[in-house]
Amino acid sequence: MTDIKSLTLQELKTELTAMGEKAFRAGQMYDWMHKRLVESFDEMTNLSQAMRNACKERFDYVTLKAVQVQESQIDGTKKFLFELPDGNLVESVWMKYHHGNSVCISSQVGCKMGCRFCASTLDGWERNLLPSEMLEQIYAITRMTGERVSNVVVMGTGEPMDNYDNLVRFIELLTNEDGLNISQRNITVSTCGIVPGIRKFAEEGLQVTLALSLHAPNDEKRKELMPIAKKYSLKEVLEACDYYFEKTGRRISFEYALVGGVNDNDGEAQELISLLQGRNCHVNLIPVNPIKERDYVSSNRQKVEGFKNKLEKSKIQCTIRREMGRDIDGACGQLRRRHVRKEQQEDT
Ligand code: SAH
Predict the structure, then answer these.
(1) What are the helix and strand counts (H, E) for the chain?
(2) pLDDT score of 348
(3) 127-155, pLDDT tens digit by residue?
(4) If you average pLDDT over residues 52-63, what whole number do you get?
(5) Can you tell me the mean pLDDT for 32-58?
(6) In sequence order, which residues have a C-beta less than 8 Å from that of residue 49 and are 6 or more positions away?
(7) Which of 60, 190, 230, 335 could form an S-S bond across to 155 if both were Cys, CB 3.0 to 4.6 Å?
(8) Which of 117, 224, 297 is the pocket-test mutation for ligand 1 (most atoms within 8 Å of CB)?
(9) What is the Cα gyration radius of the chain?
């Protein structure tokens, strides 16, 4: 069965003409799927019943079922736990900002990257998400909230560069003018630093923002926190980021999770400054969201502010990430993990 929602308009035309349908039907179907966001072939009322039935036999129509929705009492952030067609679970987050609504999506079921502070990787990697499954996180949320999504960040569970082809296709479909038509500039892809992926991504001719999960100012400390640092040195990662900037003109966003007593002292701030100085970039400081499986703690407010001031004095642009939805299992992968654990306990 072909996954119909992962097809481009052109591919859909080819599929439908092979079925003996007129090519213009592809435009109609694309509109139902990617603009009107319907949940089944049966809602496509300008297609004949015979055609809808033929489609049901030939295509998978991926939709996600929300099995849990949590809403933050602090800031209105909503966290969705979705069930995929094969029963796997992924989570997505909807955040309201003054500049529009933002959705954070997952790109894989689980993750194999092993970052020490992250909950998404604790149970390992299960599988890649299809382009349709990435899109559907946004479509389902749009249907449920009734509000348009203007920004998408690929910062949920998974390493997008480890699911490269599906990621690029997802971006193509999401930004297509016949679909949700989200601006490329409003999309951010976050990576732990897979060098060949970053370099390839630089050559796609896209205007997407790249976020690089840095988290440490030197290789030694970075290896402690992120196993991927054993494979690619900071030098190689930063060169790949420079290449991305050179090719796209998009300034890199460096993510730095502040972990109390681990990467937040003055010396480390200074090292970070030396590392990034001269680059057109932005640093996002994130007080780490502690997970109970590790004993990492967040840096205190004073440390966070101090770190920020130091960077700014050296003319490095930086913001402290607003902590959205802290009261609702905010940290990546926590909601899914909790749910899966609970089910396992109930089963035994
Ligand atoms: N694999 C990609 C994208 C998913 S993680 C990446 O590594 O960038 C998205 C961001 O959340 C990354 O910067 C990641 O390091 C960060 N993150 C993961 N767990 C966190 C936690 N407990 N507290 C704060 N940030 C965390």
Answers:
(1) 11, 14
(2) 47
(3) 999 999 999 999 999 999 999 999 999 99
(4) 98
(5) 98
(6) none
(7) 190
(8) 117
(9) 21
